[in-house]
Structure formats: C-alpha cells, structure tokens
Amino acid sequence: MCGVFGIYGHSEAANLTYLGLSSLQHRGQEASGIGTFRGDTLKVVRRQGIVSEGFNREAIDALAGDRAIGHIRYSTSGGSFLRNAQPLSVNYRHGDLAVAHNGNLLGADTWRARLEELGAIFQSTTDTEILIHLMARSHGTTLRDRVIDALSRVRGAYSILFLGASGMVAARDPWGYRPLVMGELDGATVFASETCAFSLIGARLIRAVEPGEVIWVTDRGTESIFPFETPPHSAGRSCSQCIFEHVYFARPDSHMFGHSVYETRVRSGRILAKEHPVAGDIVIPVPDSGIATAIGYSEASNIPFGMGLIRSHYVGRTFIEPSQSIRSFGVKLKLSPVADILRGRSVVVVDDSLVRGTTSRKIIEMIRAAGAREIHLRIGAPPVTHSCFYGIDTPTREELIASSKSVEETARFVRCDSLGYISREGLLKSVNDPDAPARFCTACFDGNYPEDPAEEPPRVAIPE
Amino acid sequence: MCGVFGIYGHSEAANLTYLGLSSLQHRGQEASGIGTFRGDTLKVVRRQGIVSEGFNREAIDALAGDRAIGHIRYSTSGGSFLRNAQPLSVNYRHGDLAVAHNGNLLGADTWRARLEELGAIFQSTTDTEILIHLMARSHGTTLRDRVIDALSRVRGAYSILFLGASGMVAARDPWGYRPLVMGELDGATVFASETCAFSLIGARLIRAVEPGEVIWVTDRGTESIFPFETPPHSAGRSCSQCIFEHVYFARPDSHMFGHSVYETRVRSGRILAKEHPVAGDIVIPVPDSGIATAIGYSEASNIPFGMGLIRSHYVGRTFIEPSQSIRSFGVKLKLSPVADILRGRSVVVVDDSLVRGTTSRKIIEMIRAAGAREIHLRIGAPPVTHSCFYGIDTPTREELIASSKSVEETARFVRCDSLGYISREGLLKSVNDPDAPARFCTACFDGNYPEDPAEEPPRVAIPE
Amino acid sequence: MCGVFGIYGHSEAANLTYLGLSSLQHRGQEASGIGTFRGDTLKVVRRQGIVSEGFNREAIDALAGDRAIGHIRYSTSGGSFLRNAQPLSVNYRHGDLAVAHNGNLLGADTWRARLEELGAIFQSTTDTEILIHLMARSHGTTLRDRVIDALSRVRGAYSILFLGASGMVAARDPWGYRPLVMGELDGATVFASETCAFSLIGARLIRAVEPGEVIWVTDRGTESIFPFETPPHSAGRSCSQCIFEHVYFARPDSHMFGHSVYETRVRSGRILAKEHPVAGDIVIPVPDSGIATAIGYSEASNIPFGMGLIRSHYVGRTFIEPSQSIRSFGVKLKLSPVADILRGRSVVVVDDSLVRGTTSRKIIEMIRAAGAREIHLRIGAPPVTHSCFYGIDTPTREELIASSKSVEETARFVRCDSLGYISREGLLKSVNDPDAPARFCTACFDGNYPEDPAEEPPRVAIPE
Amino acid sequence: MCGVFGIYGHSEAANLTYLGLSSLQHRGQEASGIGTFRGDTLKVVRRQGIVSEGFNREAIDALAGDRAIGHIRYSTSGGSFLRNAQPLSVNYRHGDLAVAHNGNLLGADTWRARLEELGAIFQSTTDTEILIHLMARSHGTTLRDRVIDALSRVRGAYSILFLGASGMVAARDPWGYRPLVMGELDGATVFASETCAFSLIGARLIRAVEPGEVIWVTDRGTESIFPFETPPHSAGRSCSQCIFEHVYFARPDSHMFGHSVYETRVRSGRILAKEHPVAGDIVIPVPDSGIATAIGYSEASNIPFGMGLIRSHYVGRTFIEPSQSIRSFGVKLKLSPVADILRGRSVVVVDDSLVRGTTSRKIIEMIRAAGAREIHLRIGAPPVTHSCFYGIDTPTREELIASSKSVEETARFVRCDSLGYISREGLLKSVNDPDAPARFCTACFDGNYPEDPAEEPPRVAIPE
C-alpha cells in the first residue's frame, strides 16, 4: 500500500504536499518523496523513512514552484529502497516528468521484458516505470494523451498522478481498486489517496475520481475524460474497490469510496457481535486499527469496552532490538497490556484482520501472561485465503494461515479460547450501501479476482 | 516531569536501561542519557530528543558495564538543553559519580549562591548539581553516607539514583512527592519511576521505595535506611504523593503509589459523570490520556463511547510547521476529528486536565467545525489554581486559567456549551484508598503546600 | 576532468577502488562513486564530496564482490550533483551495468535528442548516458560487442570503464585524449587514470591502454581489440594526447603518456628560464602544481628557490566564507605569504598556467603586500586562447584572458612587473620525446582542434 | 601542543576567531572551540575535529557578541575527547567564565587532589580546570585579580586567555615556554599563538606578550602587569622559550619569539650541511615541515633540491584503513615517492626531527623501494633524549629512540646509509640571535629542565 498527494496552482505547493503526505503516513513508512516544477524544471527530493524525519525546512524551501506531487511508500522486502522511492522522475523528449503511483500493474514482468528488447533502460525495479517508457514511445502530442496512451496498454491497479511542465494528470484504473479523491483549496486543485489529507490542510472535498476517469489539470482548468473501454466486470460488478481499505488501511476519519471508515468499522463490530457472540467480561481492541470495531462489538454485546492494550508512541523504525542474551520482547515494545483490567477476566480481543497468525499469537500470549482467564479473538474481516495482486503487499498464499488451516486449527495456533471472523456478507453489509456487493473487490477472501493476475498482456504494438 | 531508571548487577545493564527509558518516554522527550561503570570509570552518553532517536546500537555497545542509571528529561523552556541533560556526571575526590533525578529541590537558588561563595563551580543550571557539591564536601566515608549527608540538608522533591564505583543509591524524599519503584530481574536490582518499565523488561516488582527511604545497593546486596527526620506533615498527612501522576503523567498500564492508574482514571470518569451529568449523544476522549476517564464517564452515563479524535503517530519533535502564508493548523497536526460521529451530535469531550485553556479552546473549535451541535467539556481533574514546586513544570499562577477565571468564565473562554471539573474529593475517591486524603498532595488544586516553597533553607554549616 | 579506477578479480575490490580513487582525488572533488558486482547484481554507492568524506567502513563493506569500478568527478557548475555522479548504473535487457567515464563526447545534445525521439528516457544530464542507450539498442551479443557498437557511433574523448555481470571493458578513444593505464595486482587486472593509483596500492604497471584500444576482461583473461577506424589525424599527428595533463592535472609522481610528470615540469621550468630570463632574488612556486616548474627555473637561472607561499591543508569545501562586513580574504585562506623572504626582494613567481587571470592577480597583490620589490610572473604553459572540448572544464573563450589580451595587457591586469609564458614548442620539448609534436593535443594554445567540436554526428541508423 | 586565539571589541568576534583558529590548525586537529559573551552570558561551542569540519555558518551565527576566545586541541591518547575540549566554561559566583590554555601545569595531580579534598568537583581531566577552582576560591574582586591570584600559585607552562563578562585576560608564564602575540584589528585587541593568525585576518602585530606578563583588556583599554616573582632561571637564562616551536610546530610564515620560522629553518639546513656533509645527488624534504630545512641544506651543499615525496591533501582523520588482508600501506597514504628522481640516486632526506624512529623507518623503506641507491638522513633538530613537561605531547623517555640508542644504532634501526643530526649549538645559532642560548629551553635535547617537573607544589593555603 502507498499514498499519493498532488496540488496544482498553489504558492505553498511543497509545504502542503508535505502536510498531506504526513496525514497519509499510515499508508506507508518506508520512503517518501515530493516533486515540484519551477518553470520547465522538475526538482524531486526522496528520502527513506517517514515524512517528518526525511524532510526539513531547508528541503521544503528548495522545492519551489506552485505544483507538486508526493508519494509515501509502504515497507516491502528488498534492499535498495531509495532507488524505488517515488515520485519517479525522468527527463525524456518532452522534458521533465514525475510520477506517483498507488497500486500494482499486472503483467509487469512481461512488459518490462518487451520494452527492454526495444532498448529501454530502467532505473528502478518498480512496475510504475513501465508507464514512463510507454509514454516516451507514445505519439501523443500532450502529456494528457501520452498518459492515456500508456494507461490504455496496461491492466491492474493504479491511482496515479503525473506532473509535467504543461500540467498534471490524475487517473484511476477502470476497476477502481485503489482510492483517489479530488478537492479544492484556495482555488488550487488537490488530489489525495484519502480525505483525511484534505481535512488537515483545510481543503474542500469535491468528489472521488471515478473508476476509469482521467483528470487533466492545466492553468486553463480541469478536464474529465473517460478514455478506457469499460472492463468486462465479472459477476455483475460495476467496479472493484478494495474492501480492505475500510478494514485496515484507511484512517478512521477518512471517507473511503463515499463511506465513513469509522462508521463502517463500528457497524462491522456490531455485526461481528451478532455473528460470534460470547459471554465475555470486557472487550478490548488491538490498537489502533481495531478500536472502532471493538466499540461496535461492545455496543452490540453490552460487554464493557476497555483499552486493555496500550500502544507506545515512541517505538519507531530506528529502535535498537535488545541483544540476544536478554529475553525476546517481540510485540511488547509496541503494545503493553493493562494487567489490572485483564486479570481473571474473560477477554474479548478485537482485531481488524488475521493474516499470518504470528502477531495474534504473540498478543494472545501477552494478554494471557497478564492474567486473562479466557481469551476470545474476534476479527473484523473474513479469513484471508488469497493473495492480492492489486496493490496490497499480502504474503504468498502459503503464508496465509486461512489458506491451509480451518478456523479451529487457527484458534489452536494462536492459542485463543475461541475465534470468530466476520462473514464476507457481514462485512459488505457493514459498508451500509446496498450496492456494496457489486462495488467491492473481495478477492482476498473468496479468490474471485476481477482481473486474472496470470493472464499475459496482449501482444499489441509498441510505438517506436 | 522526568523519568529515572537504574539497574545493578546485570550484564546487559545499558541495553535494559535503554528499554526501560523507552517505556518511560511519556515522562519527557527533551533529552535522554545513560551512564554505566566499567571498573572505576564512568561513561555517560547524553542526547537530545527521545531515546530511540538519540541512541543507536553503537552508543549502547560503548556503554559497557553491569550497572547503569538512565534519565529522560521533560521539555522545558531555555536553550542549552544538553548542558542540563542527565545523568549528571562528575569526577570528585571519591572518583566518578553519576546522578539521575526526578523532582525539584526547594531553595535551590539560595543553596547555589552559598556554595558559590565557598568556591563551588557549576557546570549546569540544574538544582541537582547542588547535591553533588554537598556530597563533595561531605565527610562521609561511603557513597551511601555522602548521599544521606547531602540529602539531609535539602528540602523538596527527589526520586533519585546515584551511581558510583562502589555502589548505587536510590532515594525518595520524606514527603514522597514523586514515584520510585524497586524490582528484580535475573538477580539484578532494578529501579524505575513507573512499573511499566518493569513490565517491558520482564522484571518483577518488589515494592515501592518508601517516602524517606534510602536504598544502598552493592555487590553484597541491598540495605534499606530511613535516615531523615519525619517531616512535619501538615493536616494529618502521612506523605504527599502527587495526585497528578494518576491524572496525567503515568502510563495507564502502570501501578502508581500502589494503585492501577487505568482503574483510577475509569473511576474518576464514573464520578465525573455523577458530579456533572449531561444529556449527550456521544462521549469522546482527548487521546491518549483522556481515554480511560472517558470510558468511565460513558459507563456511568450510559452515553455511547466513541473515538471522535484520532491522534497521529507521526508528528514528532522535528515536524516542520507550515509557513505563515498558509492557514494555522494548530492542534490539527496531532489530532483529527472523525466528523461522521460528531456531526449534529451533542458531544461530551473528556480530557484529563485543563491548565491554560488554550489547547482545549482549539480542540473545541475543531470539534465544532466538524459539525458538533453541542460540546460539553468534562475534566478528570479539579481546576488547577496553584503552581507546583515539587517537580511538575506547571506554568506560573498567572497563566493558570482557573486561578483568575470562574468555571463559567473558563467555559466561555474555551467556547464549550458546558464545563465540569471533577471535585478534589471525587478525584481522591477515585484512587480507591480510604487513606488517599492523607497520602496525596493536592496543592495545585487547593494551594495547601506540604512544604513552603518560599522558605529559605536553614543556615546550617557546610562542611569544608 | 575526472578520474576512473577499475579492478577485476580481487577479493578486496571495493577497498582497493576506494584507495585508488583517493590517490586520484586531485582530478576531482565534487563527487565519488564505486560500483561492484556480486553475482549478477550490481551495487553502486555515490556520494558528494571527496572519497574519504563520502565513504566509511560500512559503505565499503556493503560493496561486496571481486570486481569494481570507481569514479571521481570534477567540480562543475549546476546544482543537482548527485544525479550526475558516476558510476552511472542501469538495469537493461542484458542485466545490470555500471559505467565510469573520463572525457567528453562531441555532439552529445544531438545524440540525446535523437535517442529521445526514439523513446529513450534519461536519468542524468551527462553525455555518458548516451552510450548506455546505444548499448541497450545494440544487437551485440556480448558486453564487449555492445560497447564497441556504441563507441563506434560517437566521437570525442573517452577513457572509460564498463562493468557488467559477464566482464569489464576498458576503452580509450582513437585520439587518446585522456590517459588510462593498465596494471596487475595479485593476479587481478587493474585500470586507472594515472599511475600514482598503482603506486599506492602496490600494483605493477603493465602499459598504457593505447588510443583506440578496447580491452575485454573476463574470468578467462584479457583480450585487446582495436575495432575503430583510424581517425583522420590532422597535421601528421598519430594521436592527440592532452598536454595539459602534464602541465596541471596529473600528480607529479605519475607517469603520463609514458613520461614522468615531475621531470617534464622541471624541464619546462628550465626552458622557461631560458625563454624568459630575469634578474630576480628568489624563485617561488604557486603550490602545489608550480613547485617542480619553479625548481627547474631556479636550477637553470641560478636564482635561489624558496617556498614563499604556504598552502593550508585545512581549508576544504565546507569552509565558511567570512561575512561581508569583514574584509575579503580571497586567496589568503588557501595560500599565505612568507613575508620574511619576500620583503624588499625581486621575486620570480612560477605558476603552472594562467587561465582567467583573476587568481594570479590576487596572488600577486598578496605577495606585493608582503613587501616584494618586484614581481616577475612566469607561466609553465603557453597562453590559453581556446576552450577545450575533450574533457577539461575550461571557461568559455570570452573568459580566457589570453583570447583577448596581449601579454603586456595581461601583465597590467595581474599587476606584475613582467610576465613570461613558455612557448608551445618549449612545452612540447619539455616532454623529452622527439615525437611529442605528433602525439599531443595543444588545441587550447593554438586552436588546432583534432576533431571539429561543432560538426554534427552523422545520421547513421540506430538499431531498434 | 594547542593553539589559542582571542579578540576583544569587534562585531565579528566569532567569525574572526574561526578564521584565526583555522590558521592555527597545524597546532592541533583533535578538537576546536569558540566562546563568546553577549552581555553577561557566555555561549561556548566545542566540536571534535578540525575547525572547518566542526563549525558551520549556523554555529558561528549563534555565537553572537563582540569578544571571543578560541582553542584548538592537539590529538592525544584517551577517549572522551569532547569533555576535555576547550574553551572550558563554567558558571561560578562571579558569573560565566571561559578559559583557553596552551601549555601544561606542573604538579597538576597534587593540586587536583588538594582541591578535591576541599570539595572541588571537576568536569574535565585537564590541568586547566585547576586554575578555575583557584579563581573560584580567590578573594580577588576583579577577574584580573582572580587570574593573577590563581596563576601565582602554579608553576609550569601557560599561554592562556580568560574571558569573563567584565573583560579578557591574556597571560604568559614567567618562563615564557609557549608563544603568545598581541595585535590590533579595526581598534580591537587580538591575541594568538602565532603571527600567521594575524596575517590571515589582516591584524597588525603589536608585540609578543612577554614572559611573566598579564594583560588585562576591558572596554577602557589594555593594562600590562608583571605580577609574578622573577623565577630562578637556571644557567644564566632570562627565559625558557621552546626551541621546538621553531623546529616543528610553528607555521613557516609565522614569526616566533621575534624570529622568522622559515629563515631559522633555512639557516638550520645550512648549518646541518656543514656539520654533516655528504656527497648526494639530490636533497629532498619530508613535507611539509622539512621543506625549508632541505632548501638550506641544498643551498649550502650545492646538491640540487627536489620534491621527492608528494604529500596528499585528501587523507584526513576519517580515512578508512585498508583491511588486513591487503598489504599494509603505512605512511604511503600520506606521502608518495616520485620514483623518477630517486631511482639510482644517492638521496639526502631532510626531516625536521626524529623522535621514535618508526615513521622515518617507513619513509626510508618507501624511498628505497622507489629505487634510491643510497639514503642519507639529515635531521634539523638534535637527538630528542628527554620528555617535555611544558606542553608538548612527547612520548615517554622509553619511547624516545635517542634516549637508548646511539646515532649509529638509530641509523641501523631506520635503515639509512648515514644519519646526521644538527647539534644543539648549531640549532641555537640558526635562530640568528646571540642571546638564543639564554632564551631558549632545550630540555628535550639535554635534560636541563628549567623547572623540576617532579617537585611538589608548595603547601600554600588555599582561600576558602
């Protein structure tokens, strides 16, 4: 998962991008970057780590200009982080260009090989760079046309911003996997992955960028285009928005695909309480993402809510792990149990999702060590049985505990006294939208992939 | 407010001190330091900022030795931070010495002037250094005796650790203003400001260091001494522990003065709901310190609890403030409202305390801008009318809004629809200890100072 | 001017490259970089500033592998330094590739435009990247063939190293503008811009890479190829080696194009004394590059040699310039006069070259302020009247004082009592090689350019 | 060896101190520091490493005020460098005070012990801090009187600057071991260890501070005082200035004790040629300190001078040593031989001094490996047989090769073909002052110590 932010036509473009990225920081902590144009010249600063560590006043001041795009990158495996940080920046025959991409293209390896056969040179190992090469070979005469030309050739997930000397392009793939919203601030046009970025800087939300929409922003205003063929949505779907954004990624104060994330989570907690009731003494969330779901569970079950786990604010990326000769602290560095409200109690623990099971197992061990009599784990998402190919960095299927273990086996593995997941239907209902089943992708729960991730890209001609 | 940690007799002394200080980080973020002995030689590393930023693996590895003390310092005004960071370290006629102090001595200026008349030279502007000068002039033959000699001459608040080549001394002033607990880990003796440090490293809590107790730790074991005259406790008090530790400073998973901080706060919320009921639609805390109180208020009032304010984890000390030309963000960088659960509602906002009123005013403005219909502010502490002289960095009396404004005037200032503080009696009751009134200092609420902060130190002879 | 170093087949490849680059540091201080292969994977570290500031033990250790190339870059105008630092590194269809280049290609802008028309994307603004794009489009099946294919298409100056997973290529353009030598260390093949790099690491000099030679180094050994057509050398030249390497760039302990730099300079001083005698009291060099020439002048003239200017070792790139309100220090920060041997004397000042005249003017002002009675400036190079297009960062013609001012006018400008330049013939004679006139480029003194810098590259087909 | 600089009454005090320290950088590279007063408040910045690395524009700007002292510290053994960096700064009963000291007090351990018995606490392990404690206990009513009181009680070497809110004191011990000069710039009074600092900033040399003189600088002007008893100078001496300043420490463009350092060295080279003639082919210096001596040797012997060793400008403190598996580079990183002028020749190598012999041995090995036929080592100082107790960090007697080995044995150890030291009388004669024997300390050559380093300080009363 990643986050993007863009602003066109504001004298404080870099500073506002810095603030916007800060409010999207929960979407990635590996690297951050900002690119701005001054006249025809692009300046990009990319840094490892979170925005507030990577950028200082001097860096922001150096990013002059009235248009900017920014990106924050999720932590992934692999070493040469900064090489893959975004915005990607290049100089091609149409001048300087910067790109910030949230999502994941399908068939990237094939595309890369084809372009390399034609002499293309890559500076990063990201799929995003494929789009730049397609643009460099496009015969389109404007940035807008080159972007549309390139995007027409690929499949997969993209909520993406392009910034050139002539304007900015915002685009969302026809399936609409990842979010992207458009707003306005002091006459400037603003884009962001989530509405919480608008709230922080005081921008007004105009609307979501629609699935399949391309928005072309220049000094003359904005233009909305729907240049792509309607994709063959399976199973009566009109689009394939990621339900996991509601479950886990988005900040609770964001509106996601038109719905309040906080309220969706509270409702999912209520439904979860109905689907998997238990006679507990206290309901505690795994903070922070499990809080709203736990509140909903508590309300519907009438079991008191408590903050039985405290999250430390001071354990960051640079924390020194204790040496081997002293005991393993594991998850304790980030979470601490409040033993006084756990001791001797039957505790209902509410978490947003259960993927590998290893973290849940440590949390349950910690709660039990604090004296809990019984531990009932309730999960605000169905079992994750399939990998995501549309922009979430889920593990391989083998690592997904639910792909090979039953609920009972999983409960034994994490050592809880009972385990209950919300159903797929319950989760979709919690969005409070009757069209939710036709609008959300739930492939990670049911394997019903909107686009076949294994299908090879068609052998279309690449312009030369 | 500050935090101290010490460990005697563990091969991983510096590493465990690093972990212990990390768990006390909420007590101060300005500076941190660790001192260790290897043979007769003290090594001290002090850094600005939080522990995880200031110390890396190399710094910890350089701090060899099996005994260590550490300190974290609260942000105060004034520029030359590092000079005043602790542990203070000196070389005097008895060798190297390190000191870590939580608290505040009374009459420090007078003491300093007297010692300077005798030729003393100060390296810092801290009151703590006075103790080292008194020790340097003491005729005591052991570190223990020199510490007792020095502490006997001063008044005020100290929970303090001394580390020399011959042993470690832990001491708490006779009034017991600030906390200090003793524990055990793998045979080593451990001290910390709060029990949460023990929970993290897996140490066993033995007991609190008693008011007026001095504990002398050497290779031969620990010795407990009560060398000071019983102070003339006013108003039937047996000691004067700081009630504000429960209200605000301590981490909710700590036991403070023998009582669960979390549970005290929940109880205070229940009492607050009784003392200041209101017909609200939702109870929201100001995170993080107001959460447990809000849970208690919600329980007792049957008004649903909600996380209406989201706290950002990524806004640290190094955050770049937006430039003046864009709007002031104020408290928004750290807290974001969840508008969906506030809009059109009557909101009960629960905060731990109200000191100057300026932050509350911004929070209320933000909640109102998110659409709240009514805002009722409830405070888990009585009005703060008097400054603290025992180790909390409260503002001067003039800056304390409750020292000059009535509750109604304060409500107008912060622009809430109603304002209710818990009563002094209610707060003491929430500790759930019948002796609480005789054991806690509430001077900041009632001006009843255990020791007169203006009284000059007696003109006793200083050894030469 | 830049410097390159490469080593193939040594377990300490990165460390030796670090040492080799250090000994070439006089060829550039702007940036440095090292690239190594481990298996098929290239790792490159590039840093601003000099090698010893940019690389620490950790950086060297991270550069594992038994083959490495390195580059040091001369300070040029323009801001985004690191982007243009070398080795350049890319991933193209034949895997990872690193390139380190000393020299300057002709017609680079035209080439860049042509390639961009074909969709090429550039990450730097260097001419070197053109070669990579030509290689990416080459149908050559080995790295060797792709390098030859690319180099066959360009003109200009290159002493260049390519490192891929399959081997290393070293090449020198057919005119042989810039130096490149080959050596051997512990069985490994080594390349460097100057022999002083071999002296430091204890490598044995094998020979210079010849003009027009390509050397292909793999695990099976080295192969020498002369793939390029013999260029139409003008005026009976067999090659066009840069005479300025002897005058200024090379370290005096290097052998350059087969001749001792130190001895060439001493001889030039002797010839200069013959061509421009003067009745002075003392001969002083402008250190460090004027020392050997001044020694030769002193010998031939029998005027005593003295170190009348002291060079500071401690004024580096990071020196803070004095604020405007205190007097301008100019060249005084780097050079200090020894007034005691200048006062009242007629001083012969020997410098390696006179380009703009501004520095000479400051030096002469400083010597005169120290009390010199007369100042006679002698220059170890002819007047520089034309810009270099083959890799030296000379100013534009307008800035070259000798392009518009006579010797007398120049003397008045720099305020010396007399001024004498060595003649072009004298300089060529000082190399002590009867073929020198046919082997050296002296275009900066006579405008006789080996290749026309303004000629457009031929419109040959670029493979696709 | 260290360096000091002070300026009183200039609006650019810190900036000029920065420049002055830079020109004294050859006197020490371990640490540097600057202290300034603004009103009554002292601000001190101390940094490890050389001035240009430790101080940036921001640091200088933070040091506001019109008076400043600075210090640069020589590299010594021991770890906690910054603790001992100067200016030392304290707050004592007369306010803030900063001290910068070049020299070494005798009996420092005894003084320290006595003061500690009286309760003194030390922040550093330097002898300088003793003076501050004596000042803190002085009954003197002005800074001037307290300085004189403190200095009257100690013996040993000090050229020292004190800066307080009321004025600046410059003092030199009655023996005058270490240099200190006074100058004037724009009406401000300036002090420095060497005149080269004045040359750089354009200050006018007024005169040397005399042995035993104290100069008191305030807004009302300067006052010269000679408060100390004339010391019992041994052997008809009038003072005991360090001859090694001429031989090695001072910069050749400085005047030291009234004489040109450069000229003294040239004369010593001439005398050395007379005392130890040899039929060599070339005379080469060990740069930089041996250059002037070698020039004198060349002149007197009529053997040509050559720069046979090149000194690298780029090998600083942070250089990574090659790993063990590649050959030891030793002195080669800093010095490179110019083989072309050494090969087959009989080489006369001139160095300033020979202390341990280990470096000379490496240099000779390097010259021999470069092909020299014979190597004759000539030293511009007599054999160093005794340690210095007056401020030079010489090794213990055991490490001084001349304390246990004859000249022939030393020649065998360093593996030269012949070895000749200048005589003590020859060296004194080279100063060109008939009174030199009565004015210079030559204890390191003859053991004739001006003050007995082992004598205990007299048991005078310390005021309390």
Topology summary:
Four copies of one chain form a homotetramer.
Chain A: E1 2-8, H1 13-23, E2 31-38, E3 41-48, H2 51-54, H3 57-62, E4 67-73, H4 81-84, E5 88-92, E6 95-105, H5 108-117, H6 128-137, H7 143-152, E7 156-164, E8 168-172, E9 181-185, E10 188-192, H8 196-201, E11 204-208, E12 214-218, E13 221-225, E14 241-242, H9 243-249, E15 255-256, E16 259-260, H10 261-275, E17 282-285, H11 291-301, E18 309-311, E19 335-337, E20 346-351, H12 358-369, E21 374-379, H13 401-404, H14 407-414, E22 418-421, H15 424-430, H16 436-439, E23 440-441, H17 443-446
Helix pairs in contact in A: 6-7, 10-11, 10-15
Bin the helical content of chain A: 25-40%
Protein chains sharing the most extensive interface: A-B, 65 and 65 residues
Distance between the termini of chain A: 33 Å
Radius of gyration of chain A: 23 Å
CATH superfamily of the largest domain in chain A: Aminohydrolase, N-terminal nucleophile (Ntn) domain
CATH fold topology of the largest domain in chain A = Glutamine Phosphoribosylpyrophosphate, subunit 1, domain 1
Mean of residue pLDDT values of chain A: 90
Task: Give the CATH level 1 class of the largest domain in chain A.
Answer: Alpha Beta
**Strand segment count of chain A:** 23
Oligomer: homotetramer
- Please tell me the total number of domains of chain A: 2
SS element count, helices of chain A? 17
Instruction: Give the strand content of chain A.
Output: 25-35%
Main beta-sheet annotation of chain A: 7 strands, antiparallel
Which class of secondary structure composition applies to the elements of chain A?
A: alpha+beta
Strand line-up of the largest beta sheet of chain A: 3-2-4-1-10-9-11
Q: Any low-confidence stretches of chain A, pLDDT <50, length ≥5?
A: none
Shape of chain A: globular
CATH architecture of the largest domain in chain A: 4-Layer Sandwich
